[in-house]
Design brief:
single chain
């Protein structure tokens, strides 16, 4: 293939990726406007509202999701810097975080174990294939880490990304109502539970409740990602052998 042909293919892919990025941002902007118009209700979650028209468009136009992910990968990459940005509210609330280290440690161990075991058991009970169960196991970890874990234990990274997003949306939409039903008012407990169960999407929702809630959610999301990434592949190989 000539150099001109290679350049044309390159710029075609760049244009395609840029188109999907701009379209995603456009739908997300509209979703934010809708949520604000509805008084900030969690039922109008921006991720959920923005995903619906994109999925409908891909389905109607018979576009392979891999083509869309050419631009989606750029947005996924931005999750890293966004996670690092959580250090700012952590710095401002460090004294509160330090005073809750013991209950946080206990909650982290229990929450991480329940998140993985519940996913594996439910998937197995519903007759899912082993590859699907492996893809489902890291569903409560933020997307980049979860995709890496899935590949390590023999799952499908793209399927894991879908499970992660679904998990986060469910947590963001129903988490606050669930806490209210159980009369859990402490922002530290609400935030930490949201971060373990619903990772980044849940953390975004937690910050809508307040900085303390969001800070503890961000801490939980980061710690859960580290613990799951270190232990899940090793334990999976141990029990699978």
């Amino acid at each position: 293939m000539s150099d001109i042909g290679i350049k044309l293919i390159y710029w075609d892919r760049v244009f395609e990726a840029g188109f999907w990025i701009l379209l995603t941002l456009f739908f997300y902007y509209l979703a934010l406007r809708i949520q604000r118009a509805l008084g900030g209700t969690p039922l109008a979650n921006p991720v959920l509202l923005a995903s619906a028209p994109i999925i409908a468009l891909l389905s109607a136009a018979d576009i392979w999701v891999g083509d869309y992910m050419g631009g989606g990968q750029a947005l996924i990459w931005l999750l890293g810097p966004a996670t690092v940005g959580l250090a700012v509210p952590l710095y401002r609330n460090f004294a509160r975080v330090r005073s809750a280290l013991v209950p946080m440690a206990v909650s982290l161990v229990v929450g991480s174990a329940v998140a993985v075991l519940s996913a594996v058991l439910i998937g197995d009970a519903m007759g899912a294939s082993m590859e699907t169960v492996r893809s489902l196991a890291p569903k409560s970890v933020t997307t980049p880490i979860a995709m890496g874990i899935a590949e390590e234990i023999g799952g499908y990274a793209s399927l894991t990304a879908a499970f992660v997003i679904i998990t986060g949306v469910i947590g963001a939409v129903f988490g606050a109502a669930f806490f209210n039903m159980l009369r859990i008012r402490d922002p530290r407990a609400r935030g930490f539970a949201m971060g373990i169960a619903a990772h980044g999407i849940g953390t975004a929702r937690a910050f809508q409740e307040g900085e303390v809630t969001g800070t503890f959610s961000g801490v939980a999301m980061a710690l859960n990602g580290i613990v799951t990434a270190l232990l899940l592949p090793a334990l999976w190989l141990l029990f699978a052998s």
